[in-house]
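Extended Data, panel c. Modelled sequence:
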Amino acid sequence: MTDDFKRKLQDYKNGTLTDEERTELEQQLEQMEIYQSYLDEMLDGEEDHRDAESNWVSEKEINMHKREARLLRKGKWRARIGTAITLICLYIGVTFVSGIGTSLYYTTGDPDRSNIYRDVVESAITVTYPNVTVHLSGGSGSYFSMNVTSKMTKRVGDEYLEVGDFSGTFLFNWMRLYDFTWSDSEAARSAVFHFPGTPELNSDQDWRRLEKLPEGTVAEAYVSYDRLYKTDEFLQQFRDKQLEPLWFAVDNGDHAAGHDNGIVLDPIGFPSMPLWHPDDGKVTKHETSKGLWGSVSSSVTKYPAIEQFGSGQLRDENFIKTLRILEEHKSITNRLIYAVDITKSLAYVEKNGVNIYGAVVTGPTKEILKLKNDPAVSSIRVGKVTLWNWNHES
C-alpha cells in the first residue's frame, strides 16, 4: 500500500476529498473487495484440496497398517505352530529313545533287574505281612519307570481269598510310589502275636468266638507259643493235627526285652512254602521255537523239594537269604518296611539262628479250638473265617 493511497484513505475519513476523488477511491475499494473475495475462494479451495489429500493419505496408511498387522499375526501363528510341532516331535523322539533305554535297563542281567525288583517287593510283603501273598506282574514304560501290580490274597482253609490290590511304580531302582488297597478291612488289621516269657495275653474273647462258630466253617488264626522253637521242632507240633501252618513268626530281637509287654504287632517271618528267588531254581528243560513274530523260548525250572514236617535247614537258609536280599535293596525295602529294621534283624538272626514263637494256621474252626488244650499254646487271635472248603483227610 503506497503513501499516496494511505493519504487518500485519511482524507476520505476526514471528508476533505472532492466529489470526484471520493468517487474514484470508492471504486478502487470496491474492486479490492472483489479481489479479496476471489482470493478467499481460491485459498479455501486449496485448503479443501489439501485436507482431502491429507485424508486420502491417512486412509492409505491405515490400510497399509492393517495389512502389516495381518502379516504379523500370520507370522506369529506360523511361529507358534512351528514351535508346537518341534516340541511334539522332540517329545516323541525323547519318549522313543527313553523307552528303548528303559527296556534295556530293566532287562539287563541274568536274572534281569525287573525280576530282581519284583522279587524284592514280593519278599518284603511276604516277610512282614503274615499269610499275605502277591504275585507281581507288569513291565517297563518310558523315562526309566516300571509299574507292578498284583492281587493280594490270604489262604483260609484250602482257598486263596482276595483281600486287596497292590500297585507300585519304580524309577530306576527306587520304588517311587506304592499303594495297598484293602478290600477286606479284617485282613488289613495288624497281626497280633505274643512273645514268650512276657506278661500273658488274654485270649478268652477269641476262644469264645471259635466256640460259637459252626462246624461248617474254616478259619485263619494267629497262634503264639510258650517258648522259642527251632524250625524242625516247631513243624512237629502239627504232625497229628488237622491244621496247616501257613506262616512262621521269627524272633528278631525286638521283643525279647519285654518293653512292649510281649505284644507283637509288627512281626517278621517266612511262609511254610519257601519264597524261591530267581537264582534258586535249576533249569531242567529249555526249548526255543519259531513263531509268527520271531522265536519263542520256554523253560522248566526245578526248585528244591520240601518235606511237609521237615527241611528245617533249607527253610532257615531261604529265610536268611530273603533278609539279605531285602537288606541289599534298601531303596525298595525301606519304602515297604518301616516298622522293622531289616539290617538289625538280619544280624540278630545270623547270630542267634532262626527261632520261631508263633504261626498263622488254618483249618476247621473246631480243630483250631482244640489248641486251647495244647499246653504249648500261650494265646490266639482269630483272623478271617469262611465257609467250609477243607478237603484234607481226617
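The CA atoms of residues 277 and 321 lie 9 Å apart. This feature is highlighted in the accompanying rendering.
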